[in-house]
Amino acid sequence: MTLKATTPTRPDALSDRAPKTASQGLDLIGQRRGRAGLNRTSVLAAGVVLLFFASVLLGSYTVTIPDFFTIVANHLTGGAKIPGASFIVMENKLPRAVIGTMIGLAFGLAGALFQTMLRNPLASPDIIGISYGASAAAVVAIVIFGASGAAVSGAALGGALGVAALIYAISSGTGMRGAGRGNAAGNRLVLAGVGIAAALHAVVNFLMTRADIRTAADALVWLNGSLNSASWDRAAVLFLALAVLLPAVAVISGPLRLLELGDDTAAGLGIRVNPTRLALVVIAVTLAAVATAAAGPVSFVAFLAGPIARRFTRKASLPASALVGALIVLAADYFAANIAPLLLDGTALPVGVVTGALGAPFLLWLLVTNNRKDA
Amino acid sequence: MAVLNAKDLTLKYDQRCVVDGLSVEIPEGRVTMIVGANACGKSTLLRGLSRLLKPAGGTVTLDGKDIHTRPARELARTLGLLPQHPTAPDGITVRDLVGRGRYPHQGFFRSWSPQDDLAVQQALEATDTLELAGRNVDELSGGQRQRVWIAMALAQETDVLLLDEPTTYLDLAHQVEVLDLITDLNRRRGTTVAIVLHDLNLAARYADNVIAMKAGAVVAQGTPRDVVTEGLVRNVFNLESRVIPDPVSATPLIIPIGRHHVPTELELVS
Amino acid sequence: MNHGTTTAVSRPGTPGTTVPSPATGASGGAAAGRKRAAWLLAAVVVLVLLAATSLAVGARGLPLGTVLEAFTRFDPANGDHAVVHARIPRTVLGLLAGGALGLAGAAMQGVARNPLADPGIMGVNAGAALAVVTGIYVFGIASFSGYIWFAFLGAAVAAVVVYLIASLGRDGATPVKLALAGAALSAGLFSLMNVILVSSQDTLDRFRFWQVGGVAGRDWSVVLPGLPFLAVGAAIVLLTGRILNSLALGDDIARGLGQRVGLTRALTALGIVLLCGTATALAGPIGFVGLVIPHAVRFLTGPDYRWILPFSLVLAPVLLLGADIIGRVVLLPGEVPAGIMTALIGAPVFVWLVRRGKGAGL
């Protein structure tokens, strides 16, 4: 969570008085850092794989590893099913873990993209209103039209994209007053998003008072983000979306690194700032929107993934942020589905409640240590 | 009049020690320039001298009294300060901004007085910003804005004024203008001034007294003629140079020597 | 950019002998002051008219003459008079909560030097909400007057925690740190609240009506206990105008001007907590009033907090009462709570402010 200005710093040792040794030194440092970052990123990836299997195999219904492979192989080849276990693994645990991983990746990336682009740690999609667009549309669908399942997801996707477009339209456009003084367009984007989010929040609250209590309770579960309705259909749609979006992220990550240096510097390095920013917004918003449509606005994942990844790998890295996002969702869902019922007389929580309740203290801790350290 | 004194001053940011056991006196009624390489602790020293940073050890005294034990508002009537990057609220006018320098002269219930008006007026005149008084600060150029901030510090009417790099981001003409203005202030009001300045040549020209710092310690202090030498520049900036008398002011003028320009006998001016 | 007098060497007049020139001297400031005072008076008049309208408008509309009559010649047998009297508590609550939120919002933006500062962002609403949910779930509280103390306690604790976390470190409670800490704590508290709400439908059923925020359905037993807190909070905050003016120049300059930044900031924060904690306790979480009004007020007053504060005190109830009145008539025979209407009215205003480029800085 670097809150510092982004002026490029030049270590004193690198003045051209001793060019050879200095630049060699820089290369060495760069390589060493790069390698450490890569190692740590692979640690994260291993963690995701480990948690993925833990959530499929362990928990309130345990499956042995040989059984798991038998079940999956038989499912694919149409072989014999293990009574009970096959159903639970194939229809519940596996799709749940797959969707959890994918929305984690998507939220983590979306958050990191926004935070990097806007140079503002507050600027994750859940804070700047995009998730609220999804929520409001979903609650309207649930409460007013009695929708459920795929219809709610569709409404959420539409809501998120619509609100994102609205925010972008508000913040871009006329009279760039104050342009050149820092990051005016970015600030306007954050401000417009916060305003819209608050208004939509009020709408959601009002609709909650208008519904009968059972519908309101359903809507609340959705509002918190939940993997309970995970299914292969949903996983397939999500997979297709990510198959398009992840390569797009890879392509845009180069220009993004230059955009981090500030609009003017980036323009000087040959980036077309406004089209690049628009492309970034579209990609990041779509990532957040499809993830929200699949599982509801799982709070804090997008907000936290970037800062945690940066702490862990000691540099800003999109893959690391995505992996941290997946780690958070998988760990939180394991807790919500398997451990929370033991503590709360059998109530399984929506995963978003856990990411929020556990994520917030962690963020506070990040803030405390950060404030102490570099303040 | 006031004398600002630091004794065995140790300044830390958390655990990192920036200034260690430093003793220095800012002479009364003079213009003192604090110079040194990047990150040598000169801005930190200024923060320590101005009560922005509480010392981890040692004391800073103004007229013999510890600045940290004196009431803040009373101290602010004697000791003024202009940080490096002051922020102006959106839409504030020049006159309003300068007027806020009168804060230490107002009581909790005592509001604006004719005396405050006079001080603001004089500050605006002294900085040649009178015709800007009704303008918004956001609309001003860099040089004008810097003069307005100095006007705010002047309106505070202090005997001691500390400035952290008041010429950053200004072109050469504006740099000279700002330093002339500060010199005027010193000559007319006898204000004690301490300035952190990057430009060694301007420091040598405008200072009565130079404090050269390296790695959190004072390496030399005295008049520019005594202090600013080729040896000092080598020691403090790790830079080879020639020092000649400034043809305009006869103060030391530093001519840096890079790697690509080796002085020939002909070019040397003794 | 015009560099003005680039080459002119400044030639200051001798100190002590100059006289303020009439064109730019004190007279200009005084005239501006008179103009602002007139504006403030106009705002008060609008507020009084709106309060009268609030007594007249509703499912049973009454002419203003009847409203006046209900005060001057009260007739207990007259049904219209009884309706007017029944509308007094919600009108008073609208005035009080509106004023408190406006004042708190302005002071918060000043003390945090942050255009986003608002009871919602700074964790106050979340703290109050969690406390109310706990009150309902654990203690079975079921009335607005029962929620007050929980809401107040929750708001105060949340605000103090946010402030403490943000003020760790060398440079104290900077705007970014405050906003981050507030957002983080809010999200966490809402999640804890949702743990309860997801597992208890009864709690959700009661809580959702508090959560929308509004002034309807509150009687004197809700309004009166809040009065002393509001009075103390308003007194503190109204006196901080000059403090906020120096703080607006940045902590370093404020210190250089002799302000004890930590102390004054803590004092202002105390006033803010009293004001918006009480307002939230009385009326539920009402968004946008504290956020939008100070921004709008700056158009009239400029950046001088000695004027921003009183203007916010008067204009914020105009928004809240106006929202309540409109909410009573748009969905007849039902009502839209004031908290929803302020959001629906406030959001476009806020968006407009953002587009004008206001608030992009500090």
From TrEMBL, chain B:
The subcellular location is: Cell membrane
Predominant place of localization: membrane
> What do the Gene Ontology cellular component annotations say?
plasma membrane
Keywords, ordered alphabetically: ATP-binding, Cell membrane, Ion transport, Iron, Iron transport, Membrane, Nucleotide-binding, Transport
Give a yes or no for keyword Metal-binding in this entry. Answer: no
Record's InterPro entries? Answer: AAA+_ATPase, ABC_transporter-like_ATP-bd, ABC_transporter-like_CS, P-loop_NTPase, Siderophore_ABC-ATPase
Pfam family of this protein, just one? ABC_tran
Membrane-topology annotation of the record: Peripheral membrane protein
In what residue span(s) does the ABC transporter domain sit?
Answer: 4-240
A Gene Ontology molecular-function term? ATP binding
In terms of superkingdom, the source organism counts as Bacteria
Q: Give GO BP annotations, semicolon-separated.
A: iron ion transport
Keyword Protein biosynthesis included in the entry's annotation? no
The protein's name is ABC transporter
Query: What is the source species?
Result: Pseudarthrobacter enclensis
UniProtKB/TrEMBL annotation, chain C:
Region: Disordered; residue ranges are: 1-28
Provide the membrane topology annotation.
Multi-pass membrane protein
- Kindly state one GO CC term assigned in the UniProt record: plasma membrane
Q: In which compartments does the protein localize?
A: Cell membrane
Q: Signal peptide position in this chain?
A: none
Compositional bias ranges of the Polar residues kind:
1-21
One Pfam entry name: FecCD
Membrane-traversing stretches: 37-59, 88-108, 120-141, 147-166, 178-200, 220-245, 266-293, 305-326, 338-355
* InterPro entries hit by this protein: ABC_BtuC-like, ABC_transptr_permease_BtuC
Matching SUPFAM superfamilies: ABC transporter involved in vitamin B12 uptake, BtuC
Which GO molecular function terms does the record list? transmembrane transporter activity
* A biological-process GO annotation: siderophore-iron import into cell
- What UniProt keywords are attached to this protein's entry? Cell membrane, Membrane, Transmembrane, Transmembrane helix, Transport
PANTHER family recorded for this chain?
FE(3+) DICITRATE TRANSPORT SYSTEM PERMEASE PROTEIN FECC-RELATED (PTHR30472:SF1), FERRIC ENTEROBACTIN TRANSPORT SYSTEM PERMEASE PROTEIN (PTHR30472)
The UniProt entry's sequence similarity note says: Belongs to the binding-protein-dependent transport system permease family. FecCD subfamily.
Kindly provide the name given to this protein in its UniProt entry. Iron ABC transporter permease
Q: Which organism is it from?
A: Pseudarthrobacter enclensis
